[in-house]
Design goal:
The chain is of the alpha+beta class. The protein is built from eleven helices and ten strands. The strands form three sheets. It has a five-stranded mixed β-sheet with strand order 7-6-10-8-9, covered by helices on one side.
Length: about 350
């Protein structure tokens, strides 16, 4: 049926609405209702074969088109709109769409309230706080090495077990496995596969009142009894310089402006001796040395040269094999020393 001549605005607004739900369509691909005539009748029970151009919109919105295309995947319950023609005497909500568009909203015909589901009749009960005893959490916040609450929480990256930092570092000086599950952390450098767990430590400090204050008090007493300054944030890897009184008492070497550093690298014990074929080569003041396994032969040779005051360049020998300058002690211990018991014996000689 043709549209009346006095309804151009009403007809124009109809093209912006959805035939089923009556909501305003988004800009994009239009879905013509006649293409889904059978599906609309099956899903919504609406017969659009007798639609009038001046009363009914001829397009569908995306949601309604999805409903008729896949009836089994209903997102929400949609109630079809009963459309009426334009009436000049009453307010026509379709014609008011132009004014309502300025506020991005407009009134749609009242739809019947959807049927309540059985699940809507359930009464929501407020959740009660369940108290948890601290002893129930002990297996997660107690160090299995010292059987105390974890301090400076450190976690193994391989198995995610956590321990006190000092306990774990002391354990890994002689072993390469996790203290709890015995999994191999790393064959040569297990210290590189552990890390501080600040979130776990913050949680433990909140769960155990007074733990942080007690630990700080013990830390201050420890350094005060030894005449040392407390490292910032309790980090023992920071440089510590002995005071002059301890140096005079012989507890520490004299302070010559240099600082002492302690690293968490895997250590190895060495026995450094001159080769017996050259009796004129001076010996080391102390032939037993403990140093990092990452140390290269080049740096160790410079250290020996400085201690023995030998002007010539030196070469190091292990198991009758001359070592290259770029080799690390870790490689020597694995390949040349064959992981025998410490200390690893090295000989030094003048380069020919």
């Amino acid at each position: 049926m043709k549209m009346s001549a006095h309804q151009p605005e009403h007809y124009s607004n109809l093209q912006k609405l959805c035939r089923i739900c009556g909501e305003r369509r988004n800009k994009g691909r239009p879905y013509h209702s006649q293409a889904f005539e059978t599906q609309i009748k099956d899903v919504f029970g609406v017969d659009i074969s007798d639609d009038r151009a001046d009363v009914h919109p001829k397009y569908l919105c995306f949601n309604c088109q999805s409903q008729v295309s896949e009836p089994s995947s209903k997102v929400k319950e949609i109630m079809p709109v009963e459309w009426k023609g334009h009436d000049d005497e009453d307010d026509c909500w379709v014609c008011d769409i132009k004014a309502a568009a300025r506020s991005d909203s407009f009134a749609v015909p009242e739809k019947p309230a959807p049927k309540r589901r059985k699940s809507d009749n359930k009464i929501s009960v407020p959740k009660k706080e369940v108290p948890i005893l601290l002893k129930d959490l002990n297996e997660h916040i107690v160090c299995s090495i010292c059987n105390g609450y974890i301090v400076d929480a450190t976690t193994v990256t391989e198995c995610l077990h956590s321990f006190c930092k000092s306990c774990l570092v002391k354990h890994l000086q002689t072993r390469q496995t996790c203290p709890q599950c015995k999994i191999l952390i790393h064959e040569t450098a297990p210290m590189q596969y552990i890390g501080c767990d600040t979130k776990l430590q913050d949680m433990i400090n909140k769960l155990v009142p007074g733990l942080l204050d007690s630990e700080n008090k013990r830390l201050n007493e420890f350094y005060a009894n030894r005449g040392l300054s407390v490292p910032q944030n309790g980090n023992s890897s920071r440089p510590i310089t002995p005071n002059s009184q301890d140096a005079e008492a012989g507890k520490f070497p004299p302070d010559d402006g240099r600082t002492w550093f302690h690293t968490n690298d895997l250590k190895i014990s060495l026995c450094i001796e001159p080769i017996k074929k050259e009796p004129v080569i001076p010996q080391m003041p102390m032939k037993y040395v403990r140093c990092s396994m990452k140390l290269k032969v080049e740096h160790l040779a410079k250290f020996i040269k400085q201690k023995t005051l030998i002007p010539e360049e030196l070469e190091l020998i292990c198991n009758k094999k001359t070592l290259t300058n770029d080799a690390t002690l870790e490689n020597i211990w694995l390949d040349t020393w064959k992981r025998k018991e410490a200390p690893m014996t090295l000989f030094y000689n003048k380069k020919k």
